[in-house]
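Hi,

I'm pasting everything inline rather than attaching a file, because the server keeps stripping attachments. The sequence lines come first, and each chain or strand is labelled.
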Amino acid sequence: MANRTITFEPDDRWNAFITCCSRAPCGDGALAGIPVAVKDNISTRGIPTTCGSRILDGYVPPFDAHVVELLKASGAAIVGKTNMDEFGMGTTTETSAFGPTKNPCDPDRVPGGSSGGSAAAVAAGLVRMALGTDTGGSIRCPAAFCGIVGLKPTYARISRYGLIAYANSLEQIGPMARTVEEVSRLMAVISRYDPRDSTSIRRPYIHQPTTDIAGLRIGMPVEYFGEGVDPRVADTVRKAVGRLEDLGAEVEECSIPSMAYALAAYYVICTSEASSNLARFDGVRYGPAADTRKAWHDAFSEIRWKGFGREVRRRIMLGTFALSAGYYGKYYAKAQAARHNIIRDFERIFSSVDLIAGPTMPTVAFRLGEKTDPLSMYLSDILTVPANLAGVPAISVPCGTVDGLPVGLQLMGRRFEDELVVNAAAAYEERGAA
Amino acid sequence: MNVIIGLEIHCQLSTETKLFCGCSTDYRNDEPNTHVCPVCLGLPGALPRINRKAVEYGLRVAKALEMEVLEESEFARKNYFYPDLPKGFQITQYDRPLAVAGTLEIEDDEGHAKSVRITRIHMEEDPGRLVHMGGGDRARYSLVDYNRSGIPLIEIVTEPDLRSPQEARRFLNKLRTMLEYLGVFDGDREGALRVDANISLEGHERAEVKNISSYKGVEKALTFEITRQRNLVRRGQRIARETRHFQEARGITTSSRSKEEEHDYRYFTEPDLRPLRVRDWLEAIELPELPVARRNRFMAEYGISLNHARTLTGDLRLADFYEQVAAVDPALAATWVADTLLGELNYRSMGIGSVPPDRFAGLLRLIRDDAITDRGAVDVLRIMLDQCSRGEACETPAEIVRRQNLGKVTDDDFSAVVRRVLAAHPQAVEDYLSGKKGALNFLVGQAMKETRGRADPKAITRIMVECIGSEGGF
Amino acid sequence: MVSERDIEHIARLADIGITRDEVAEFTPQFNAILDYFDILDQVEGGEPPAPDAINVWREDEVLPSLTQDEVLGNAGASEDGFVKAPRVM
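And the predicted assembly:
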């Protein structure tokens, strides 16, 4: 446990942090004295936790998230809370109420999102490691855009206790760092079973990455290299997979037909869950106070209008609509059926290959302010959401550049085979790159 | 016009902790907001965990009501916004409840046996408690206590099988007794049972009356509602399908035109919880002796009447109390508990729980051993109950008898009294001797007055007749 | 197709404030998104897979609660140990 403090006063010109802890306690253990940044949707006792939203102004959690307890127990120094799209709802970190984060690779570009602050803090060298959360790509996208490594663990492997929910059935907390080795170290610390999360499963990650991938079977889904994917990004990733082949992996083409409706299913499910999760922010128990001179519904809708940004309100409304009487069958029920088909597609593919490889994002990082239309923003998540729908582990590891901007190689594995995903990423990083 | 009534009954389950967190359910004597944690306060990031005991209690109810337990059931979110609902949704069960299709037998208004069908039972969490501040028609603001938030409830939904407010009350009494016998419910706790009633006249729309929080309230609310609906029909007006609130204090129902009227709860499966598969527990659940079985046993084992047995088993604690004191003399105990003690308790609004059984048994022994008259015993009982209700240590009946000089007067004492009375009323004695038997009653009454009721009237009569006869009017 | 009136209705259902400008902005955006969601009409089958885990619960054992100060510490307003909220009637 904590027995000393470290000083943390970074030059945060990228706006990676919402809160910095200038004197951060740390102690002994697996991460003794290592500065770790935590995404601001993960509860930290005594440290404001905002989710990048005005609606949580002034909220100080009276408890630590399970992963934060584990970080503290491993001696890590929690040096700050990182910027993010409001409640995780975005692909660029531009929807944050605290202003956008800039990409350390090119300050005119977005860092990706929603864990853009965590990615930028790592990429800029402000911290060695960071925690992000990934609901539909929110760890992998910024990892790809900022040129670092990010792992979305198997659903149920990391306790969500203390993670402020956006879409419970999809999201996981995960590690981000500059190397696969460091990602693996952080993963080992946070993957301890926690009975407080009824969906978590006791499968601790106790693993030292190895780079021998001879005989590993890798599938390349045609959907990950086709329409909507920047051909230069597709080429870069194809070459990276080629390097894995050089290292002894067997590569074959495959297809995920349910990709056709994966994105639609994802957005119906995440907005539906969000519409319910975000109802608790009513200005009564925490956050900016509701006006108690008004009638309840007036005060409630006013606090939500003032406290939530447009994208959040748009998604709450979409989810409300998708669950409403008369539309539940057309949207929510169909999205669940689609999700089941996606799970089966993955099971089928994983009966003949060990990993699925493709680009993390269809393009490199956008310019700040470039994407204004919600649907076109949503469409950029097409390659990351399938892993969330299927609950499988997925990593993004840097695999080259296009126009000088980083490209991420995404590797997905069977559920609870995060170790294999990490091994393949480590193999690429150590022996494949360059 | 037939009356059609269906009930939705919410009962708080008497677990030690809340449905989804480890906060204690024993909050009634504590400060507001002292039995809450991140989970039941709906703090962001907190996650629910199912209380296994609550599920087991639900299954006990399912078994007692002979229900079909679903192979797989699940929790769902019911989305609506209210300040006493900390998450902005209630975790409940929707299309896959714990159990469906049961029955409970009651007596109809003619005294015939009748089966009431139970549609389903499901588990859910109680919201917090709201206090409306400021007077007049409209409150100025509300105050919220979240101690109740997350208390486990079981909701029992009936088919529209009830035909009168009296039937509804009998159903509720029977259900409550059964739940208490099952050890899953404590009806003495304030607000532990709340009822919503659907009520219609055959061929007309139905109204849902919400917010009935007492047993008496159910009969009152339904009676009012039937009259209201009948009057509308008589005047040729249409009955609106609507939600109405029962105003307990005024004994009326009023239409609620609030926004929650747009019922669109947007249910979906609670993603933070896993499904339940508990059907195979059912076999292992051993039901305790239920009211009807206990009633029959009381008649067989203690030789008491159906009426006494029914009264005594109508309440779990009363039945337990009776069994603690029955050994003195089962028949005497039945009479004194069912006829005398209950009346005295009701008069004082006391529960059986506040009467020490050993003290009551002592009183029964005094009666049995003829050491005290019935009248004296009632006096002793009243003194005991007054002491109990004041929270004082209750004296033993023997102590009270001694202190108050309530002991039975002996025959020797009687003779003296009788002689005095006869001497004081020669005319009455004359009348009696000349055949006016009513004069004896007068004389006995005078003697009773002198003994302040401590004498047994039968003994007085006997002695008096002896006196008059032997001394020929002295 | 959803109309501006539909958008206003959804905002009411969600109990979330919306301005005239936002109604005008959200309406075409919703139409584009909902058009895209129409692809879900093609989904067939989709039997749910077996759950990962069943009967996940805790025993009925009392755990510590927060203190009243901790509960009220984040609330905007409180009175006599209660949390203050807008009127509901």
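Chain C has a mean pLDDT of 93.

If the labels don't parse on your end, tell me and I'll reformat.
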